[in-house]
Amino acid sequence: MRCTLGVDVGTSSTKGVLVADDGTIVASATRAHDVVRPRSGWVEMDADVWWDEFVSIAQELVSAMPDAEIAAVGVSGMGPCVLLADADDRPVRPAILYGVDTRSGAQIARMNDELGLDEITRIGGSALTSQAAGAKIAWVADEEPDAYAAAVRLFMPASWLARRLTGAYVLDHQSASQTTPLYDIENERWYEPWWQRYASSIEQPRLTWAGEIAGEVTAAAADVTGIPAGTPVITGTIDAWTEAVSVGAHEASDLMLMYGTTMFMVFTDAVATGEETLRTPSMWTTAGAFPGTRNLAGGLSTSGALTAWLKDLTDADYPQLLAEAEASGPGARGLLMLPYFAGERTPIQDPDARGVVAGLTLQHTRGDLYRAALEATALGVRHNVETMRAAGADIRRIVAVGGGTQGRLWMQVVSDVTGLVQEVPATTIGASYGAAFLAASAIAADGEAPVITDWNPIAETINPDPDLADFYDTLFDRYVRLYEASKDVVHELAAQQRD
Fold this sequence. Notes:
Elements: E1 2-9, E2 13-20, E3 25-32, E4 44-45, H1 47-64, E5 69-77, E6 83-85, E7 95-96, H2 105-115, H3 117-124, H4 133-143, H5 145-150, E8 153-155, H6 157-166, E9 170-172, H7 173-176, E10 183-184, E11 189-190, H8 192-198, E12 206-208, E13 213-216, H9 219-225, E14 232-234, E15 237-238, H10 239-246, E16 254-259, E17 263-270, E18 284-287, E19 293-300, H11 304-314, H12 318-328, E20 336-338, E21 356-358, H13 366-390, E22 397-401, H14 408-418, E23 422-425, H15 431-442, H16 452-455, E24 458-462, H17 469-498
Parallel strand pairs: 1-5, 5-15, 9-12, 16-22
Antiparallel strand pairs: 1-2, 2-3, 4-7, 6-8, 10-11, 13-14, 16-17, 17-19, 18-19, 20-21, 23-24
Helix pairs in contact: 1-6, 2-3, 2-4, 10-15, 11-13, 12-13, 13-14, 13-17
InterPro entries: ATPase_NBD, Carb_kinase_FGGY, Carb_kinase_FGGY_CS, FGGY_C, FGGY_Carb_Kinase, FGGY_N
GO molecular function, one term: phosphotransferase activity, alcohol group as acceptor
Protein name: Sugar kinase
């Protein structure tokens, strides 16, 4: 049986799938891991975890399906991350993760002063935020000069796997467009003046598109993984974009909504020659996964991480909490939560935001708190969607993906709060499946490329309850006002947490 292998390195786990030519998942494997938080606002991971878990998953899947012919390998991973490695590809420090790591505030302020906010946005598409990988490279240069002096190459999880498998030093355009301010989004290339200013000692990765073949599995990689030498490996990209591929949400006017440890949204805009790329300072403008596309993207810093925190705190399991949250009902019996427990990314771009629970009484229960957490993430999604639309995004279709889609209540709350219809595909395993699809597409003969809607048709539609529209309009207004009313005190507390 001919298959493609897809592996995605996520924030809390690495997932792998073997997928047959018709899109059927014939085997899967998962390895759980944790991030490291050495200081408030720092989120890191040892890159050895990425490779070790890839090897373990590949070995398991190959052993589970010994008759499978692995025709190509797809790779994917969280991002944008900053992994700097020396000339022998040894990491010089742990990888700095995406926008949940907020350490680069001083570098962002300096770059804004030196380059100008308008010019940064014009060249790179986005304002500098905690998501900007270029600012994190500058942080290493400023704060860990010995590590930076040893650094020669820049990787993210997908490109690190491609390097270890093939020896190719590549980065896809989508990931590169999040190394702000080092990438020129309109011309789809590294922006040489700013690369030389802020990353001059780092060799520039060769830029390719996510689904292009980076190289072939080497003999050394074949020995440890069990994947045959010579197997093509794609370049891959950041997991949210691979998730969008996995459900077909990469056409113009599609919005992918990813339910995971964090929540992520990707709106796809096809850009014709001479057409203006959508920009707004509070969101991220990026290159798409495919040539000729741009994305307006946003992300919540906590979603599944918040519900997991409540589960651990209350020593209850998810079925209990979901049943109690459903019984609590809309509005959580008068509770309103801000989900900013790890700062917030879009649209407020406030790394010093913190979680707030308003309206608590002695009568409230853990089910009320869990309901308030679900509604908080839904209100955060609505805030992002309304910001995208204000920037000109013509959102016509919402496709949901990710582990959180297994919980019907969460999706229903999001639809009710946002007023959005969500389409849920048959397979929601996410980025590993999208990586396998990209790999199958990369090796397909002309006219024989797989079609994602054949692989993964829509299986369910979640409709908002129109009777709740006015209620949630009022709650959303309170949500926005609560942040503005509490942020000064919260910022003082965040400063105290850093001391």
